[in-house]
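Archive entry: two folds, one per protein. Generate the first.
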Amino acid sequence: MSAPTLQQPSFLLANLKADSTTKPLLQRCQDLVRIIDEYPAKELHLIFPWLVENVFGSLDGVIAGWNLRLVNSRSSEYGVLMDFLNPGGPMMKLVYKLQAEEYKYEIPVNYLPGPVKACIQEGVLPDCPLFHNKLQFPLSGVLALNIALNPFEFFMFHFAFCLIAPRNFPPGQHGGSTDSAYFVLVDMYLKYFLPSEGNVPPSPFSDSRGSVTAASPRSSGTSFAGYGVHSPSLLKHHIFHQPSVNADPAAQEIWRSETLLQMFVEIWLHHYSLEMYQKLQSPQVKEPFSPSEEHVLVVRLLVKHLHAFANSLKPEQLSSSSSSPSAHSHTHTSPLEEFKRVVVQRFVQQKLYLFLQHCFGHWPLDASFRAVLETWLSYIQPWRYTGEKSNPQPDQNRTVPDKWEPFVDENLLLYTKLFQGFLNRAVRTDLVNAKNALMVFRVAKVFAQPNLAEIIQKGEQLFLEPEHVLHHRQPRGYLTPSQGGSYLSSRQRAATDTVFKVKSHVYSLEGQDCQYKQMFGSELRGAILNFIQIIAQARQTAKRISDQANEVAANTSFLSWFGLSSADVNNTFTGAEPEDSGECLRRTHEFLDRALENLSLIFKLNQGQLTQLMSTLSSSQDDGLSKQLPDCVHGENGLTLTDLGRRQIINGLRRFDIQYQGDPELQPIRSYENALLVRFLYRVSSLVNDSLGGHMTSLCSRSDFLGRLGRRYLTDPGSSVRLKQSPMSRRTLERSRRPRLSLRPLASYRTLLLLLLFYGLGVLLSLGPVSSMALLMAGGFLYGVLMTLFGDKLKTQ
């Protein structure tokens, strides 16, 4: 907006609001760049809350904002958005300009994550330092609590909340693309504020007060300690007695990095407390929050970048931290290097674990679970994000180095408990579907990496060490996942310290009364054998479906190119979805074969027993078994599936021969039929059936030759056999058996072509149309008589 003279702030805000509805985005951004450069912070302060809401949308979802989740690189507005919102762009310049003056902006407590909001409403200080010293107490009472955030926190809160805010997208559009403006901006902010190389660029504006309020108040001797778990001392602090902030000068170097990460973790992951997670194990408890696929994809981006950020720790810092008695010494490490060393364990682990546990237990049993799966697999493979490019090896042959043992120990539940959660999902999914088979293959491939299963097994043995290893059981609040040092350093601690770390990890996430189920125990081994049987059944089903599809394709005549092949839709195979045919079925077989091999490697299954199990299963499930109906009971409304029958259908072992149950004359018009003739002939046949229906029923009910001849022309002799194999009501079955005249076959282009050829032959033989018609009807009648007399004898031979 051009502003040669200084306007009153109210006029500036009013003009911006008016321009937001009339000017295109490019012109609005150009005006905003000019305003940010020309106006002082005192006036920009008044437009900042409106501008942030206008860009990212309102917290309640009513205002859509600039729809960052919908705009992608193919949009004309994409470049404008990226230039304005990138970490070094005008919007961030505005944030820094206001940050230098220490302005505050309020957010209602109701929009905070569930556990944080619950703590505040109960009068308890939240465990995350980000929300300390921020509470505002209005005169109206505690129910209207707000938190006061500085400009950078306020901006990042709205940016993070944009991902989970309810949005009414236009029809046909939905978020979730990894090339959306929002997804790319998240990646840019992570790389800028959590750099793998170098330091975070300084703010272009210096604070006139000499310091900026740090996001997490702490002293140099207790940096990062206790984050991510409830400290007993914190639980005793009432929110009306909040500690004062003593900004650590050394912490100012990375306060923006801490703030960004804590905001992302709190808004995206902290929706389930440990107590809430334990309650959610009951199916009667309503879910407090359900993430979307787009949400999970962004979380995966966060996980991958944090691994790369942590793994960029300098080797000299690793060696010094392992040899130094103080893991958090500021003498040897910079705040950024210290941050890298503890970022995954202290800031992410617990909340990500609860987030993934919820997804594993509540996500629909479909292929969209792939996003959750890959997020999990990315977290448990930090060695993939070390930046090492020398001697690249496929995942299958890459040995997991022993230096990652501490990481596996301190994240044991994310390997063992979540593997069991995936197993519980996999046994209930349709593994004939190539997408589901691929997920099973991916998990088996990751856990089959050389040395990984051994490391996990060692971690389980450490947890199962006798109780006397720990002289006394510490309170759960004291048991933090990691007590200093880098998980990349060599293991030089005593055995008791290592046992303590593993037990602390498990108890801090599951509670001290948890019943740990071993991943390599006898109980889970039995579940794995059962899962292998399910995989083998799915392989056979996929092969049978593929063979049937190949037979249908081989038997299709050349006339199918012209739509002249068999037109009976009730005879087409309906046992597989469109994506589960042809090449997809071959891929399913390949994925399941390789999954079986990897599971055998992980759990050291005897190959002879495995082969015997597979051969026994193959012999017990021949073609005759696959053609049987699923297990069901007969009721008033026909067949009703039992629980066993449902499992048989899910695993593709048996199926109903699904038939069309409506009026055959009212089936949708096919591409090989003439629509006009179908409608005309239906009216003619309906008139005949309405007027002569009683006579046709009497004729077909006779047991003599005429009755048999009438049933040949007026009923479908195979319908009763087919319909018995389909779940349908008795009323529908009786209706389908009524005698009726059907003229619809005459509307088929194939029938019309044959009639045309027959009349053409009649012309060559000097026969007129009437003579040809009479000859055709006589031939059809004679064929019916012969089949009535000798049809049964021909069938028995």
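Generate the second and append.
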Amino acid sequence: MFTAGAESLLQQAREIQAEELRKFCSRVSKLLREEDLGPDAIDCLRRLFLIVSATKYNRRLDKTCVDLLQATLCLPACPEPLQVLCAAILREMSPSDSVTLSCDHTHNTRQLSLVASILLAQGDRREEVRTVAQHVLRALESRQPEGPSLRHLLPVMSKVMGLSPGALQEDQTTLLSKRLTDWLRYASVQQGLPHSGGFFSTSRARQPGPITEVDGAVATDFFTVLSTGHHFTEDQWLNVQAFSMLRAWLLHSGPEGPGAPDADDKSELEGSTLSVISATSTTGRLLPPRERLREVAFEYCQRLIEQSTRRALRKGDSDLQKACLVEAVLVLDVLCRQDPSFLYRTLSCLKALHGRLSGDPACVRVLLPLARFFLTHGEAAAVDSEAVYQHLFTRVPAELFHSPMLAFEFVQFCRDNLHLFGGNLSILTLSFPNLFKFLAWNSPALTAEFVALLPALVDASTAVEMLHALLDLPCLTAALDLQLRSWPAASERPLWDTSLRNPSCLEAFRDPQLQGLVQHLLRSKASGTTQRLAPLHQLLQPMASCARVAQCAEAVPTLLHAFFSAVTQVASGALTNQLVLLLLERSDSLYRVPQFEARVHRVLSAQFLALCKLKPSLVVELARDLLEFLGSVNDVHGRASMVTSVVWAIGEYLSVTYDRRCTVEQINKFFEALEALLFEVTQSRPSAALPQCPPQVVTVLMTTLTKLASRSQDLIPRCLGLGGLSPGASSPHGEEGTEAIRTRATELLNLLKMPSVAQFVLTPSPEVCSPRYHRDVNTALPLALRTVSRLVEKEAGLLPG
């Protein structure tokens, strides 16, 4: 979030019109033509950068101004702040035909890095990426110790690798591997000199001392990113940058080609031939540049792991230790995949590291790359990794669900490594209650991630329990909030929650009589059972207005769509029936968050119809349950969408066309239930406690009754008698709703006067429903309907009965 002042400046920058911008560009151009580029030029360039970067679309600058920006950037003696601003403005404009820069016009590595960043932003329209790579590599070939700084070029090289991995030739790859090896292993172990100058500087200034470890001890091994000091030398800065791009470079320059063994072949090698190879270091023999780089990378990572055991004196160094551990484990994973001989030199170290970190909540993010390592290599190295997974999926989400960064990384870990779980995928699917804790607490940020992850989590054995969990997700958010408050060190307590004014809610949460339901809601693994949480819904009702609970409730409809899209791929007939029963049951048992019930009912009703279409026979199979649902509806207005879908499905699928087991007795029972429901909704008067029934429910009820009567003609007289239920002039449905009900009633009564035609229209055969029947002008259904209408309008003597 920006401050009020920053927001005001951004708003002003966005509102500047083209004419104002043209005048300002003229002013900038005038300043850039002056010989002395002073503070005024810097101030104007800052303003211009704000203008071009404040909007999502590209601002068009005068060509003269753009040319002067490029010329100023390439001046040999241009002040560095001006160069940085010119480059930033030109990058914001890219890609642009007005940019005509070339790396040939640069005079030092700093200038080259700025020009290269602009050319790379152009999008490789003129092979800029390859050109930049050639110039950067020529600069990197320089080995003069007093030459220009190479620090600015490694980030450019890293960007080149990402944009165009094939831009480097074999000899260039070898060259860069050699340079990275030197920077990683042979950086100076003495601190750098402070910047000289000033009145008090003397020739007898203190000589720099050795580098130190994070705990203050003098370093006795080579320099790494975890080494500390007051000042750093050029090669030490290059050491840090080399490590930052090491993993990407190893992946880029790894073994390729048809002669390299694939992953399966390597697994066999890991488990057989290499199991008897000595795990000694290979530094004693000459190695090709790429293999030498891997060996040095392995030593570097081992050194980082050793340095991480030291107690850091500063919090910043402690955080850096954790970040370096994550990267070191990821690099070791790449090394073991590229060269299996590293595996047996790595396993004991990482086993010990996991044992040391598994009990430290502050280091939990390091456990994710460790788990990935054991997922990748555990089987080949005959390591039982189940304990690693169990700890990761059981304790971590339950205790640290409130960490947003960990939540995102954990879900990303699950998504990125689905292919590695293999036979252990059940660990992931059974742990969905714990994973949902991340989702419940961080739903806005993780909704898209879980939409992508749900297809892997959905399993036929846990689908019903998972659907219950999704519907109870806002309730879980409220329970987690209270659980966090009840912990002794509730440092993560969200102070903005209105439930702070409801301490009784927290006290009731600890009630022993409700602990069974609370433990079920907060379970860490799928239990295979479900429980009605209505008592918890009532207990947690004061939390329903909390912002976090409301945010979670907004995500549930999206997650439900993703769930049903996945479950239909694995659902059997029995599971489909179970899901339908669950929809009927839960439509009246939801946590009452504002607007949550209406949104979820819309999804449930749509999915109910989709399941019925997938398996039409379920209407007959679940006839008793559907009749109970119709008889228990006491709030048609609150469940209008669900009631409408159920009634429509009965009228559509309760037919021998879809299930030969359908009997006249069943049709009669449904007719009686729907008749009673129609009478109830049309005769009851709306009140504050009982709002009026939507007209859509009335019209669907009338249509379904007519359909059932057309299939059991003994019901036609009773259905014709329902015409008296049409709303009168004082109907509460409003003028439009009343007219729609009357029109539908008239149409249906006219159809029932010709039973055979009614059955043809309301229960068409599969042939009639085929597309050809509707395209053929001689047999199309609209033609049949027009014919029926003309017959109905004629004298009554032509009609049967």
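Annotation attached to the second fold: Residues 197-202, 257-284, 490-496 have pLDDT under 50 and may be disordered. The chain has 41 helices and no strands.
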